[in-house]
Amino acid sequence: MRFSFVFSEMGIAIRRNLSMVISVILVTFISLTFVGTAGLLQQQIGSMKTYWYDKAQVAIYLCTKTSPAEVCPQGEASQDVQDTVTQRLESTTLAPYIDKYYFENHEQAYKTFQKEFKDNSVAKYVTPAQLNETFWVNLKDPNQAPIIIESFNGLSGVEEVKDQRTYLDQIFSILNVGSLAALSIAALMLFSAVLLISTTIRLSAVMRRREIGIMRLVGASNFYIQLPFILEGVVAGVIGSLLAGGAILGIVQVFVQGFLVKQLPFTSFVGIPDALALLPILVLTGGGLAAIAAASAIRRYLRV
Amino acid sequence: MISISQVTKQYKGAPRAALEEISLEIDKGEFVFLVGASGSGKSSLMRMILREDIPSSGSIHVLGENLIGIPNRRVPHFRRKLGVVFQDFRLLPNKTAAQNVAFSLEVIGKSRGFIAEAVPDVLRLVGLEDKANSLPSELSGGEQQRIALARAIVNKPAILLADEPTGNLDPATSMDIMALLDRINLAGTTIVMATHDRGIVDRGQKRVIELSQGKIIRDARGASYGDKE
Closest approach of chain A CAs to the CA of B5, in angstroms? Predict the structure, then answer.
């Protein structure tokens, strides 16, 4: 086996077939950029989950005068209800799960509401009495929210017990759909990349059929005949995936770290290390797919 | 060396068999002319010996290999023991004479050192050491065929198959090629040569196997091209 010879044959093949090789590089580049973007979105969802889930609270909303009668038949929750809730939160059954909790009355709720909806016209119509008095509960482990929900759901004078994570889950499901969409586009593009690679390799083989004919006559092994073509595909695939890796790094550096981080300062975002972790996956995908596509194309062309 | 027994080859859709119950033995060091009209089965027979094709029935043994049962991955190694030349030379136009010969050694993984010695040697043998750096387009037909012969024998094959090697050459040049083939044969290489050239066969007075419509109609030693005409 002489690798220098195999590589020089591969170089000749690439030079003769340059425009096709460039198109393979571009298609692999774009499709793997989509794969990488989907990967980044998944990592983003992961890091947001750990960040926000820790801060998410369970809210125990007490009944107001305006609450629907089905859940709050006796209207505004009395002081007794507040005492019962406090008692249960302090009880030995629940206390071990709770990190801290605090009570928010109508006035405090109104102030928070006014602050959060400062620019929204709804702020003008809301009165303090309409806003629920609320127990905000921070859990030691946010995954144990169902324990609190079960303990207070149905308690007379409690309108609703809500795990804030359910709001976050909606955001995450939107991001998930986004990454799924990126993955589906990537799958289609990768499929066309595979077809393009097999066409390119077959074209390359046709252009070199004279050499191939002589190689077979003088007894070159199939592996030796096929290797330059497979390498041609792999080189194109790897160059495309390296470009995709560069694009992913660029997106993280310029868009995420340079823009989003400044716009949304209290959110944790994916960084360069996350993008670097994706790089080997992209290169393996690009090189591997190219190798398989090229090998099957050249094998079909070169039946003994 | 070459042992063919009851070989029949029927191609799909062809009205008659390309080869019909062919049996023959060729021994080490023989020089055999295969003669017969176009379509008589000469090329089919050569393809069978090279294991480019498999007969429909019968058996072929070449250099101790059973060509019916040989697995595909062993075929390349089998072909390294054979040399082949064609009417159309089949040289690579973008490589020099020396590079064309070297190419056939490179692709079977021979070392650089071996190639550096073997290529000038074989070019000297065919009398073209001074044309080593010429492209095929700069060489005459006879010179190109000599390069092709150099490529075929550089790996010291036990058998040389020649499919109308003089078909594209003028009579004088053909004589040169025949002289070269005789020298290769004297050095111990078995030669099977398909040809239409009556003059060459008559002058050679070697073993002649004549094919007609896929059958052997004559197998004679020290013979001429044919009695007809």
Answer: 23
